[in-house]
Design brief:
Pfam families: Transferase
Radius of gyration: 22 Å
Strand order of the largest sheet: 1-2-7-8-9-4-14
Shape: globular
Organism: Castilleja foliolosa
Largest sheet: 7 strands, mixed
GO molecular function, one term: acyltransferase activity
Order of helices and strands: EEEEHEEEHEEHEHHEEHHHEEEEHH
Protein name: BAHD acyltransferase DCR
Family: Belongs to the plant acyltransferase family.
Strand content: 15-25%
Number of strands: 16
């Protein structure tokens, strides 16, 4: 496989990115037919978009054909364990969604492309996402489309001095923890590992074993770039404010200052606020200021929390699927803006700590009795919604030519107030905060010296 570009005569050029080949990769060995029921933790994400990640490398461009071949060879091996990513969504006769793999499926879509005038530095300097669109597969594709298309698509783009790896994962079958477990396992195999270190735990029904019947439809005439699923399961066009995205890079020192400030007024014998709680409260307060909300307006903080260690019985970290739930806390904007930052941190901590096994079970039972498929942006009014995690070891995803220069989220699943957290490239306790915000509010946030830790 290495060094070959099948269908190379079908080159296609869009903008500055030229498509060299489109192929599909399946597990290297025969596995047979495997089925896995989607559970309550998975189903609400059918109406979200494919979850996109863009990993930018300095290197990997030399001997590009061989690199692509080696990546596909490694992918075929790692898919022997993560075979669900090579499958398709399906429904049984009762309308219960499942992942189905058999040896006749197409497998993972892999596109090789070239943008040889584009430099790594141009992409790492990009604060928005406009340059990323042509480097990412499945822009504007909802997860429900996994009934007809691959559950994972990868685009490998040769740059002038590096390689961009754009991935689109069907969010109905995995969350961030599973995503980075897969990526690190794939990189480990490509870097010479004989086998993956920790196999995925694939038994979803161990976490929840309720069969939920859903009647979802997707009109065939809806334009692909404007699809999203509403509460009734139908696809509708998106509309909303003009958004801007920006990455705010907080150094280890800045993170320590934020955490110290939040904990300065804490009661001596109380549990200190965590880094996550401190940074989240810092962001929530600053975004609320930037929006210039009225004191009586509600504002909602939402975190998509990993429930692997919260459910009863606990699931292993290697659980493959979605095992997250959105945790909400709401208050008046005036209270967030006029109170010390530890006020917001306290609300966040209380919401997170109260989301125990009993609360998770209750949430599941309520949803199962009235399953509503939300749109990706239904996180609450004037919300700040935090996804991803600085705990994900994204800068350790090394396929053999070095660590990433930058890791970013794609264009999908963005709305006013969406925040993605990543570890900083500099390591230590540094954190990158990737925010999508209404354009005028973003302008105010960029000038907020208190938020930027410049005061």
């Amino acid at each position: 496989m290495a060094g070959e570009f099948p269908n190379e005569e079908k080159k296609n050029e869009v903008g500055n990115v030229k498509t060299l080949s489109t192929t599909h990769v399946k597990p290297k060995k025969q596995i047979g037919r495997k089925e896995c029921q989607l559970v309550t933790f998975d189903l609400p994400y059918l109406a979200f978009y494919y979850n996109q990640k863009l990993i930018i490398y300095k290197g990997g461009h030399e001997n590009f054909e061989d690199i692509v071949g080696n990546l596909k060879d490694g992918l075929a091996l790692v898919l022997e364990e993560f075979y669900q990513l090579a499958g398709k969504l399906d429904k049984d006769e009762d309308g219960v969604f499942k992942v189905v793999y058999d040896d006749d499926v197409e497998g993972v879509e892999v596109v090789a492309a070239a943008a040889e005038e584009l430099e790594v530095a141009e992409l790492t300097a990009e604060e928005g996402t406009s340059r990323f669109k042509e480097l990412l597969p499945y822009n504007g594709v909802v997860n429900l489309e996994g009934l007809q298309r691959p559950l994972l698509a990868v685009q490998l783009t040769k740059l002038k001095d590096g390689l961009a790896m754009g991935c689109a994962f069907n969010h109905a079958i995995l969350d961030g923890t599973s995503t980075w477990h897969f990526m690190s396992s794939w990189a480990h195999i490509c870097n010479g590992g004989a086998s993956i270190k920790v196999p995925p735990f694939l038994e979803r029904t161990k976490a929840r074993n309720t069969r939920v019947k859903l009647d979802l439809s997707q009109p065939s005439d809806a334009p692909e770039h404007a699809k999203s699923a509403g509460a009734n399961g139908d696809v509708a066009a998106q509309s909303g404010p003009t958004l801007r995205e920006k990455v705010f890079k907080f150094s280890e020192s800045a993170i320590d200052q934020i955490k110290s400030k939040v904990n300065a007024a804490a009661v001596t014998d109380s549990k200190p606020f965590s880094t996550f709680q401190s940074l989240s409260a810092h962001v929530w307060q600053a975004v609320t200021r930037a929006r210039e909300l009225a004191p009586g307006d509600y504002t909602v903080f939402t975190v998509f929390a990993d429930c692997r260690n919260r459910v009863a019985p606990p699931m292993p970290d290697s659980y493959f699927g979605n095992l997250i739930q959105a945790i909400f806390t709401v208050t008046a904007a005036g209270l967030i803006m006029s109170s010390p930052v530890e006020f917001g941190a306290g609300l966040i901590r209380t919401a997170i700590e109260s989301h125990d096994a009993e609360a998770i079970k209750k949430r599941n039972e309520e949803w199962e009795s009235n399953p509503i498929i939300f749109q990706y942006k239904d996180a609450g009014v004037n919300c700040v919604a935090v996804g991803s995690s600085p705990r994900f070891k994204v800068y350790e995803v090394d396929f053999g030519w070095g660590s990433p220069e930058s890791v970013r989220s794609g264009l999908n699943n963005r709305f006013d107030g969406m925040v993605y957290l990543y570890p900083g490239k500099s390591g230590g306790r540094s954190i990158d905060v990737e925010i999508s915000l209404e354009a005028k509010a973003m302008e105010r946030l960029e000038r907020d010296k208190e938020f930027l830790m410049e005061a």
